[in-house]
Amino acid sequence: MRVRERRSTLRCHNGSGLIKVATGIRFNSNSIKTRLTMVLLLMVLLPTLIIGWVAYSMTFEIIRAERIRDVGLMAASKHSQLVMMLTHVNASAKHFLSGLHVKCGGNTSKLNHVCATGLIKQYLAAEDAMGVTLHGKTGGDSLSVGVSANSANIMLKAGQLAGFSGSDPANNRSYFISAMEETTGYRLEVTYPSSVLEPVFSPPPAELGLSGETFLADGEGYFATKPRYASMQGHEHPISARPMRACLGGQSGEMLDLDYRDAKIIHGFRFVPEFGSACVMAHIDQEEAFAPLELLRQRTLAAAFLFLVLLVIATVYLAGRIVRPAIQLTKTAQAIAEGDSSARADTQGNDEFSELAATFNRMTDRLHAAQQRLLKNETELKRLNIELERRVAERTRQLEVANDELESFNYSVAHDLRSPLRSIDGFSRVLSNKYHDQLDATGKDWLERIRRAAQRMGYLIDDMLLLAKVARSPLKLEQVDLSKMAEVVADELRKTSPERQVRFVVQQGLSVQADPGLLHTVMDNLLGNAYKFTSKKHEAEIEFGACGSRSGSVEEDTFFVRDNGEGFNMEYAHKLFGAFQRLHAISEFEGTGVGLATVQRVIRRHDGRVWAEAIEGRGATFYFTLPRRGRET
Description:
Blueprint: H1 29-104, H2 113-127, E1 131-135, E2 143-146, E3 163-164, E4 174-180, E5 187-193, H3 198-201, E6 213-217, H4 242-248, E7 253-258, E8 264-271, E9 279-285, H5 286-289, H6 291-337, H7 352-434, H8 441-472, E10 478-481, H9 482-496, E11 502-506, E12 511-514, H10 516-533, E13 540-550, E14 556-563, H11 595-605, E15 610-615, E16 619-627
Parallel strand pairs: 11-13
Antiparallel strand pairs: 1-2, 1-5, 3-4, 4-5, 6-9, 7-8, 8-9, 10-12, 13-14, 14-16, 15-16
Helix pairs in contact: 1-2, 1-6, 7-8, 8-11, 9-10, 10-11
């Protein structure tokens, strides 16, 4: 830049005093424009490139991680479907076994083999099974029909739903399940062909694209269901890929590696302990899975190039717009310095400098107008708030009226339902008594089923009304002796089945501030459940007590009801407290499925919490908390 300095002093009388202007610097406008362009370009381009690269990298990794996770989720989904299928066939086997002794036992302690064989053949046909082996409690009352996959008489472990019988590809073409009837001591083993598992894994899920597949491998790595592709080692050898070895080692997860055909794929694998040792595998080719990433890379490069071109054009234009008014102002200052006192900066036009004063005036006018609009809106807002409060109050009143009408309707419906149910039960009883000798066994069984269904419907109506009443009835807090209440409920339960040997253990001195009627409902349901689910135990034990307290924003005590009964699978614990949810069949344990929902509603109305822990076959413990409200200790 070439600079020539001239200094001059002008006296200007403008009504505000003497202004001294030092000027005389001449600018090379082209050099200024070039440098300003470079500065602006760097100021915009560098942060944009950094942010763009970070955004691209994050998006790339997110898409990549999502694709890998989706394959793992598909493996988990297939595992869940497989477990559901095995659970269903196990339940079916238990149900068949429970009725087998009743139908074929006769008056002796041994089964009628002719009767049992006929029923087993029917069961095999219905279940698409290959064979059944019935093991008697003494070992001498066993019976086999069809082909057995358990020639080595392998016993399934706890929690295992099925098992393969061997460690070579021929033996995993079938598998077996085992069901036990505790009251009779009989054990039923059912053999299925592995082909019945194919619907779980075939056809390949659409979520895995055109190259995807899912299959099941046994505990040695052999294919238990048909793979989609030919193996590089042949199907007579176990899969030796690294993901398979990791899965058979008890791991579950996702991995990028080669598969059984040496292709680069995304592996999703889930270990299947329900089969003793097996693996659910989900595959998709990496090339197909990561195709969106290549498309993202190409589009990002194209967008970056287009952005750079537009940025250069915009920067050059912006630099020109900034430099031009500065040059004009410089010329005006030079003219003044040379003695032209009439020279003035042009304040008219469309450039930034000439519009600066007008812009501030417009901004002031707009701000004033915005303030006026804001004041107007605040008046309007107050009016809307008042109207909203009025509408909320009206809706609240309407809701209360609707709730009252709904409660009256519930009681009316319940009353109207009870009358025909009593008629069904009564006439069924009269029909059974009066025409007892004229009915065959099937007719008597049907009448008995009608009576039981009518009675169960009545119990269900009562429980539904109780559940509704719990939600609506006001709390009446009193000092309640929980220990005494538990003993009273225990005595009532003993009277229902005096032949049972049940040991109740009740911790003394437990009391709370609560609604005695609602709390009695809680104790009656929890202790009643424990009494019901220990009915198959020769030595049943039920315990009630407290297990500590917690201090915080709210002080609360924790109580529990523990039993050594059937327990349940903790995987389904989230269903316990839902209305009409059951974890056991009605044929095993009666009930309406409303009791625990009522317990949860009562405890929540007292600002408490309720949860459960259990082990299948080894009992359950139900916990609930109640806040301290001046409890006497």
